[in-house]
Structures are given as structure tokens and as C-alpha cells.
């Protein structure tokens, strides 16, 4: 049974940092394209960052470029999202997800496994 378990969310002031973790069970991260998405109340789910170990690439949404970094720890089978320079508009529930294939996709429907999400709240 596949499980993705996010952690690391919380309340932070604008300009601060958080690191989200996504522990994977029942799948090996390096065999999938892994992504981070977020969803704010009343808004659609938004692509934040993605990583393809097989393709050797990363990709970021325009709103988080140069502030967020996606990475992975293969022995721990854990995905991370380092978030720096946080802004109030980054407030959302953050999800990690897994997609089959090699090419990073920004489309949520292409991801087949999802975590339960972790809340990030940035105060001004």
C-alpha cells in the first residue's frame, strides 16, 4: 500500500523559512516523478515544484522560483521542499504527489498518489 506522509507545515512570519518533508511508503521515490502542489481556500490546486530522478531534472512554478528548492534523500525515501522568503500568498495546504513517467508534469490529474497535505500559514 502506497502512502505519502507530509510534515513540517506551520505558522511563520513573512520572510521566514520552512522545510516540508514527504516520507514515502510502498514506493521508491526515484522511480517516479515527484511533485509538490498547494491549494489555498477557493483556489485550484497549483503546481509548486517537481523532480525527476530518472530525467535528472527539477522544475518550479513561476511564483516560487528562486525561493523554494525541491530535493530528495534516497536512503530515507523522503522528498523535501525548502521554502525561503515566504510571503502571505504562499499560505495554503501543501501536498506531495507521485506520477509515473520521466517528464515532470504540472497537471495534478497526472499524479496518481497523493499525501494528506500539511498546512502552511504565512502571517504579514
Q: How many strand units?
A: 11
Assembly classification: single chain
Mean pLDDT across residues = 97
N-to-C span: 40 Å
In terms of DSSP E residues, the strand content is over 45%
**Overall 3D shape:** globular
Can you walk me through this structure?
With 124 residues, the chain is mainly β. Helix content is 0%, strand content 51%. The chain is built from no helices and eleven strands. Strands 2, 4, 5, 6, 9, 10 and 11 form a seven-stranded mixed beta sheet that branches. Strands 1-3-8-7 form a four-stranded antiparallel beta sheet, with no helix packed on it. Strand 5 and strand 6 form a beta hairpin. The chain is globular and about 40 Å long. The termini are far apart. The model has no long low-confidence stretch (mean pLDDT 97).
How are the secondary structure elements laid out?
Layout: E1 3-7, E2 10-13, E3 18-25, E4 33-39, E5 46-52, E6 57-60, E7 68-73, E8 78-83, E9 92-99, E10 113-114, E11 118-123
Tags for this model:
4-stranded antiparallel beta sheet; 7-stranded mixed beta sheet
Quick structural overview:
The protein contains no helices and 11 strands. It has 124 residues and is mainly β.
Amino acid at each position: 500500500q502506497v502512502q505519502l506522509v507530509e510534515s513540517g507545515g506551520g505558522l511563520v512570519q513573512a520572510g521566514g523559512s520552512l522545510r516540508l518533508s514527504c516520507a514515502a511508503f510502498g514506493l521508491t521515490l526515484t522511480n517516479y516523478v515527484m511533485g509538490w502542489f498547494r491549494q489555498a481556500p477557493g483556489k485550484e490546486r497549483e503546481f509548486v515544484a517537481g523532480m525527476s530522478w530518472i530525467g535528472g531534472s527539477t522544475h518550479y512554478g513561476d511564483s516560487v522560483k528562486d525561493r523554494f528548492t525541491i530535493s530528495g534523500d534516497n536512503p530515507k525515501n523522503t522528498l523535501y521542499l525548502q521554502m525561503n522568503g515566504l510571503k502571505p500568498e504562499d499560505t495554503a495546504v501543501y501536498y506531495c504527489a507521485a506520477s509515473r513517467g520521466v517528464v515532470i508534469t504540472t497537471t495534478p490529474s497526472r499524479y496518481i498518489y497523493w499525501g494528506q497535505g500539511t498546512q502552511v500559514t504565512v502571517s504579514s
